[in-house]
Amino acid sequence: MPQKKLEPPDGGWGWMIVVAFSINYSMSIPMMQLFGLIFGPKLETLGLSATDISIIINTNQAFGMLMGLVNGVLLKKLGFRKVAFIGSCCVSTGIILSAFSRTFATFLFTYGIVYSLGSGMGTSAFSFALNTYFLKRRSKALGIALSISGLGPIFMPQLVTHLLNLYGDTGAVLILGAVASHVFIATALLQPVGYHMKTVEEVEDVQEISKSELEKPLRERRASHPGHRPPRKTSITKSSLSIDHDIDSSSIYGFDSQNLSRSRASLNFDTTADQKQSRYNSYSSLASVDEGTTDIDNLGNGKLEIVSEKVEVEDDNESGNEKKEKDDNALVLCLKYILDIFDLNLLTDPVYVNIMLGMSIAIFSEINFSMLTALILTEFGLSTDRAATFMSLLAIVDLIFRFLSPYIGDYLNKPPRIMYMISLVFLAATRFLFIIVRGYPLLLVSAVGLGVAKGLRTIYMNLVIPAYVPLERLPGASGIQMVTNGVFFILGGPFLGFIKDISGTYRKCVVLMNFLTLLTVVMWSLEIIIVKIRSKRSLDSNRIH
């Protein structure tokens, strides 16, 4: 008879989860990219240096990434609905409080920490909810959600520009905080998946045998084998030790048991008279090792009690050694647990380390460029309206090429890492065009090029590590990647601001970003060449032998 089981709805209320996912990404995430457009004039009026601005931006990125490991624990303990609600509170609170920020410290706290914490928690919660509601149609649901979310970066720059013209920076930020509070509606849509699970009939495979059915005949075959010996059973209690009497003498003295030190050992046995006599002789010979310090209390009841001062001293020493060994073992187990839970053994793989470092370098360059784009356009002398048009055009082309990227990859028939390297080269070239062109029309051309490169990069960036790391080790690899990204943002962010302060222009910062982007391409190219050479040598060596 077919059994019934519960499965995610793969539709139904799941489409409302898609809507909730899109609302969160459209309302809260673009605020991160529009920092320069919103606060640029205000920061200049307050006299904050480029280093200060860079620290605020990179703290925002780093804090959210470093909290990625904690978000997983919160999702397990609280569930995605509560985590999303907490994240929504932090997002709207961080934006509203930043409207009243007047110093570096307050911007760092409101935008760099509070808002970052909320956006990170919200992103994790809504992504987890989407993956929970969809199983077979997960890729389709994610594609629809990301497509709708892509509309946010297109329209938000225009909205921000309109609000700045009408209400100024403080009023505009307050309204944007109210807009971000609409994520609470999305949070309310995150109903527990148990409400919508569907019941399906599980088709049983006639060739499938349960584990218990396989183990049972195996135990029977072992028992019937001529050389089979049943396992020896040992039970230890606080008052006595009942053991098999075929064991060696060290176990009889209790050197293997901490419970026997400072106590009296009672060896219980229930045997025939001949067995009792032979065992009594064995105990007597063992006791004679201690030069008569052993006293036979009672043998008639079938119980032998050994009291020995020397044994107690040796047991105390042995117990101390065992305690030290247990402490050492506990430390080893703790370290092993940390290695296993975060899968830090991946760091012993040089290819993975090279991929991970290259990804972190490229991500650091790309996100910093995205966050500083509005400030760079302001430095070029563009008005807020023209800067918003530039960013909207970039977002439109980015969205289009997110759709086209898989087809381009299929046509070129290249692995994800090669496609990502191609996008990085194109990205560096268009950034170089961006800083050397003069005139607004040419800047719009560079915006189209940046959108193409960004669309390709966005798709294949998420496929590089999964293409190399096995699926079961992917969570650990992703966690290591996020922490490494956070470290790069913390250490590298202030350096970009320092370069702007000493050079007086963001163009030098873009040159450094291009250098780091191409460094990733060089690192990966060298690794691919070395691996191919070694593989060829190994193949030639095998042919010779």
From TrEMBL:
InterPro entries: MFS (IPR011701), MFS_dom (IPR020846), MFS_trans_sf (IPR036259), Proton-linked_MCT (IPR050327). Keywords: Membrane, Transmembrane, Transmembrane helix. Residues 329-545 form the Major facilitator superfamily (MFS) profile domain. It is a multi-pass membrane protein. The gene is LOC108737800. It is found in: Membrane. The chain crosses the membrane at residues 12-35, 55-74, 83-101, 113-134, 141-160, 172-190, 351-375, 387-405, 417-437, 477-499, 511-533. It comes from the Eukaryota. SUPFAM superfamilies: MFS general substrate transporter. It comes from Agrilus planipennis (Emerald ash borer). Residues 213-240 are annotated as: Disordered. One of its GO terms (molecular function) is monocarboxylic acid transmembrane transporter activity. Residues 213-223 have a biased composition (Basic and acidic residues). This is Monocarboxylate transporter 5-like isoform X2. PROSITE patterns: MFS. GO terms for cellular component: membrane.
